[in-house]
Every structure is written in structure tokens, then in C-alpha cells.
Amino acid sequence: MEHVDVMVLRTLGEWRAQGRRAMLVTVVRTWGSSPRPVGSVMALREDGAVVGSVSGGCIEDDLVHRHVHAGALPEGKPRLLTYGVSADEAHRFGLPCGGTLELLLEPDPDPAQLLALVQALDAGRLMRRSVRLRDGQVTQAPTDTAEAHATTDEVVNTFGPAYRLLLIGAGALAECLATMALFSGFTVTVCDPRAEYAGHWGVAGARLVRGMPDDAVAEFHPDARSAVVALTHDPKLDDLALLEALRSPAFYVGAIGSRRNDAARRARLAEHFGLSPAQLQRLRGPVGLYIGSRTPPEIAVSIMAELLAVKNGVTLPASLSVREAKEQQAPQPSSISTIPEALAAAA
């Protein structure tokens, strides 16, 4: 499944290339609670077709009513539109806690610029798009920093290539995790050189490669929008992948296994492969959040939840880690064993 922002831009570009009138709508400011973050986009075609989202659905319906059912799409320069100024509007449009949402409406974006933007995203570039409000002039250029903001003169948004996930191992857990990642907008690659696993891979949309894990990670070229998770339980495979991934800019590197296996893995990577304490600190293992998961689907939920939290910049409390939770649940020494010592002391 393609990342929603890229899907919106690609679809909008196709509509405009076909000569259809359409509008790009971008969330540029929010006050209070808001269903969608700043930078979220949707496209609205002249016949009411919608792709993407700027709210939970009510604002999309109102935009269709305003600009399709009650007339036509606006023309000319971009303009700003605000929802939720009053409590009545906030209730009407489903904005929680009286939130306010400001949108930028861009009538008929240039199809050539949209095509160039999508091609840059497909090539893996992070792109900055700026719209000058007084005349609608659009500038697009590669950038190293994600940003989304608005001033009285311009609206700036950043579009990035899809987040990517590389899984080592093609077993049942990988199938569940790959499916969840695809629906979360990730591009998924799965590596497994073992014929008994790779031969039965069946997740449509996830690319399967059969080489060795270290080669697969090198060819994957992990960047700051990449995650690598080792799932085989086989040190000969998982360690090779982790060795490469922990030296990369990947934002998330994890490996499945028990606390004992995780400790042994860290010792191997330090002693035999020379990974530094700082590099090993980046390794998330045992991977996932502690939710008492036992089955492959439940474990996949645990891993995907942690991965998304890290992606979204959420600082997770230590109590949610598998290691911390299981250590807290470990049986404590019985107080009965201390009774003879207490009696002896009293005597």
C-alpha cells in the first residue's frame, strides 16, 4: 500500500494530466485537538471524487458540498479556509474539544509540477514544497529537514518518500508484520535465504529477496526513514543483518528473542564484530512492547506499535519494554526462606 501523501499527489497529478479540474487541500494550522496533523493533504475532483483526508470525514463532506454540489471548484489564487471557530462548528464538523483547523485550498495545481514532485519522491528524495499566497507560485526543491508551517506570505510542506521496512525471515510472524506495515504505508522488503521459508511467502506487495541478510541490508541502503527487524531466531542470519543495520542511519533496528538470547546477541556483536556501546544501545531487543503477546499476530502488533511510536517521536516509558515488564513479573524470593535466619538472629 502506497504512503497516503504520495498516493494523493500521484492521483491528483493524474487527474490534472487528464484535463480534469481538481483542488489540493492541505492542513496548515491547528488549534486545540485536531483529527489530522499539520501537513495532511487531500485532493478533491470536480465531480466530488476524494482521495486523502484532512479530518475524520465531516470536513471532507463539507468541502464536497461547498465546491461540488453547490457550485464549482474555486479558481485563481490559493486561499485559506478555517473550520471550528465556534463550539457549534466544532461539534458540527467533528472537531474534538473545540479544535480549530485551517486549510489551504489550491485550485488546479500544475500537472507538470505534480509529476516532478512524485518522481522525486519515487526516487527516495525528501521534498520541500512552498506555495506563495499572494499569487499561488509554487516552488519545489530537495531538502534535508522535514517541516510544515504557514506564514502570512507562504505555506510550506514537506513530502517524503515512503517509510521502508526490511524484515529478516519469512515465517508466520513476518507475514503478519509485513501485512500491518503495508497497511501503515511502509514499503516492505523481506529477506530469507532459506528455501523452506521463502518458498511459501505469500504477502502481496512485500518484495522477497533470497540473498544473505548482510547483503540484503547493504542493498537496502537504510536511511533515516528505514527500519530493520530480525525475526529468524538464527544468529547466523540475524547477526549478519544487525551488524549492517546498526551501522546505518535506520531509525529503528530490532530483533526478536528472549532476554537471555538478547544478552548473548549483544555480547557476540560487541566481542566478535566490534560494535560500540552506542551502536548496541540502538538495538531494540527483545523487540516490541509488552502486551502479553503469544501468537504471531499478537507479537506483530507489539512490534508494529513500538516501531510506529519511534517513527512518530514518542518517548516510551521503560515499563512498556518487554525486558522491564518481564523483570518486574519475575518471581521474588519467598519470605519463608528468611525465617530460619530471623530466628537464628533472635536467638
TrEMBL record:
Annotated region described as Disordered, given as residue ranges: 325-347
Origin superkingdom: Bacteria
Domain spans labelled XdhC- CoxI: 15-84
Entries under InterPro entries matching the protein: MoCofactor_Util/Proc, XdhC_CoxI, XdhC_Rossmann_dom
Transmembrane segments: none
Biased composition (Polar residues): 329-338
Residue ranges occupied by any XdhC Rossmann domain in the UniProt entry: 165-307
The protein, known as: XdhC family protein
